[in-house]
Prior knowledge:
Elements lengths: L2 H4 L4 H21 L1 H13 L4 H13 L22 H13 L5
Amino acid sequence: MDDKQQQPTGPEDRRTVERLVTAxxxxxxxxxxxxAGEARAGWESGDLSERAxxxxxxxxxxxxxxxxxxxxxGPYVEGPVRITPADKETVRxxxxxxxxSV
Length: 102
């Protein structure tokens, strides 16, 4: 692992992850209750499966709402929660710090 993967995440990062995991689980439940149940159990026990970690990483990337582009390019994509590119990196760093390869 590189240094970035070994760095612990702080309370602010944890709040970001919790906020986005809540939205991810709610959306997943609408489409696949079994997968959402499995992911929720893993989240609550502190042991997300590799499949759930990959799904979360993909979801947060696909759901970025605050793109940082100029107004002409569309700075904001409507969604249930605000997700910035920094939020995406926070989630991915958090997953890597827990041994997931995202």
